[in-house]
Amino acid sequence: MAKLQSLDPITPMFAQFKEKTGPIVLANTFVVPKERTEAFLTLFRRQAEFMKGQPGFVSLQMHKGTADSQLLMNVAVWESTEALATAFGSPEFQRMAAEFPDDIVSYPHIFEQIDV
């Protein structure tokens, strides 16, 4: 299973699930060894198809770092933290998440839009 790390050590993603807010954006940056990129994307696409069918899902985009970067970043919009937490906690999603190799590192964080 991929290692989950916190971008913000004061507020890890699981603590963010307790905040009842929405709409929200899940930004999840993955460190993927280059030789595992295609296999990672195959597994990720299966997860994405599952998530797209879950209540509260709005949209999803995957981005790849430029040049020789080994970073990939998923940006997913959800109606609420509750919807994301329910989908994330489902047994089917957890089974798929367990398939990722241990050398993948994931940095998920939940954001909400602010006016600037």
Account of the 3D structure:
- This protein has 116 residues and is of the alpha+beta class.
- 31% of the residues lie in helices and 28% in strands.
- The protein has helices spanning 13-16, 37-52, 81-89, 91-97; strands at residues 3-4, 24-31, 57-64, 71-78, 105-111.
- It has a 5-stranded mixed β-sheet with strand order 1-5-2-4-3.
- A hairpin with a 6-residue loop joins strand 3 (57-64) and strand 4 (71-78).
- Helix 2 (37-52) packs antiparallel against helix 4.
- The termini are far apart.
- The mean pLDDT is 95.
Q: In terms of topology, how is this protein built?
A:
Blueprint: E1 3-4, H1 13-16, E2 24-31, H2 37-52, E3 57-64, E4 71-78, H3 81-89, H4 91-97, E5 105-111
Overall pLDDT confidence:
95
Q: Element order, helices and strands?
A: EHEHEEHHE
Strand content: 25-35%
* Low-confidence runs: none
Structural Rg: 14 Å
Which overall shape is indicated by the principal axes computed on the Cα atoms? globular
Q: Number of helical runs?
A: 4
Short description:
The protein is of the alpha+beta class and 116 residues long. It is 31% helix and 28% strand. It has helices spanning 13-16, 37-52, 81-89, 91-97; strands at 3-4, 24-31, 57-64, 71-78, 105-111.
Main attributes of the structure:
five-stranded mixed beta sheet; alpha+beta; 4 helices; 116 residues; single chain
